[in-house]
Amino acid sequence: MNILRSGNLVMLKENLSSFRISAEQSSHTSRQYGNQEGIRTFCRMIRELGWHKGNKMVRISPLNAIDNVQYFDFIDFWKKTSSLNKINQAHSPREKNKIFCIGRNKTGTTSLQHLFFELGYVVGDQREAERLADTDYFDGYFHRIIKYCENAQFFQDVPFSLPETYKHVDKAFPGSKFILTIRDNSEQWYQSLLNFHIKKFSSGAHAPTKLDLQNSGYISKDFLYKSLKICGINDNDLYNKSILKRHYDNYNSEVIKYFEGRDNFIVINISKDEDLPRLLEFLGISSTRIKNFPWLNKS
Predict the structure, then answer these.
(1) Which of 124, 184, 191, 277 is the most buried (most CB within 10 A)?
(2) Mean pLDDT of the chain
(3) Whole-angstrom distance, CA of residue 279 vs CA of residue 18
């Protein structure tokens, strides 16, 4: 059978498939997880075919002979070919036990997202989560955020990287696992945050202003501004070093204190090679081809 593979993702090549994928989705970059939206689109496409609802048979036929219909047992094929099948069976999106990365942004959360993609977990749609943060989190509402968590296994970044969220999802999904990602120190984290925001949102070589953040168009007019505001900053000095560093240290201390003495919590630094085997042991994964943390969005 002619297929395309990357990790535990399997794409039927065009001579067998009854559905088409865009050039972007089928590109080498996308298959190697360089294009998150392409991968998410593919995953949604497979879900829409029905395999996740108990209907294992996928209707396939050559594109140039649509009347030549076959039925292909996608789930059976997945089980037989994926070395990550045990992980996929152990962590269904519908199960109550989830995995949350609760480190602040710029601590390797995107890199961890790609790691969990490669490990075969269903990863929450980050853009959808950010929209929920914008409409709900900043007003203190968590009901829809918790509901959103029913649709995947692993979650990271906003709103899970923001204060208090971990307490709500911990209560909603008892027995779930929590990963606190950190940098070497608060100075390193601050510089990474500042450099990333200058690169992405500034109109020059300076720290972004409130207007810069509002004009970025990311999620909503005030999303980025509100994300900084919770750190205790003021409008006249949005990137005050001492305030942001204190926020980072306080957040980490509060998280560590909250989970003290519990075995469903781990602190990792993705810049340290020894933390990958620690994380894999924490997840109960004894064998994997992955030897190093991915490293994305460097700043």
Answers:
(1) 124
(2) 77
(3) 39
Specify the pairing of strand 265-268 against strand 177-181.
Answer: parallel
- Structural tokens at position 263: 């075995």
- On whether the CB atoms of residues 295 and 111 are closer than 8 A, the answer is yes
Q: pLDDT value at position 120?
A: 83
Residue 263: partners with Cβ closer than 8 Å, 6 or more residues away: none
CA distance 93 to 52: 10
Structure tokens at 130: 């950010």
Which tokens go with 91?
A: 């962590």
Q: pTM for this one?
A: 0.71
Distance CA 220, CA 214 (A): 8
Nearest by Cα to 96 from 179, 177, 158: 177
Q: How far apart are CA 150 and CA 95, in angstroms?
A: 8
The conformational region for residue 292 under phi > 0 = left, psi -120 to 50 = alpha, else beta, is: beta
Residue 286 pLDDT: 81
Indicate the pLDDT class of residue 4, thresholds 50, 70 and 90: very low
Task: Look at residue 299 and tell me whether its pLDDT is greater than 70.
Answer: no
DSSP string, the chain: --EEEETTEEEE-TTT-SS---TTTTSHHHHTTS-HHHHHHHHHHHHHTTGGGT--EEEE--TT-TTS-EEEEHHHHHHHH-TTHHHHHHS-TTSS--EEE-PPTTSSHHHHHHHHHHTT--B--HHHHHHHHHHTGGGT--HHHHHHGGG-SEE-STTTTSTTHHHHHHHHSTT-EEEEE--SSHHHHHHHHHHHHHHHH-SSSSPPPHHHHHHT-SSSTTHHHHHHHTTT-BTTBTT-HHHHHHHHHHHHHHHHHHTTT-TTEEEE-TT-TTHHHHHHHHHT----S--S----S--
Domains of the chain, earliest start first:
3-82 (no CATH), 83-299 (3.40.50.300)
For tokens 């750190």, what's the residue?
Answer: 231
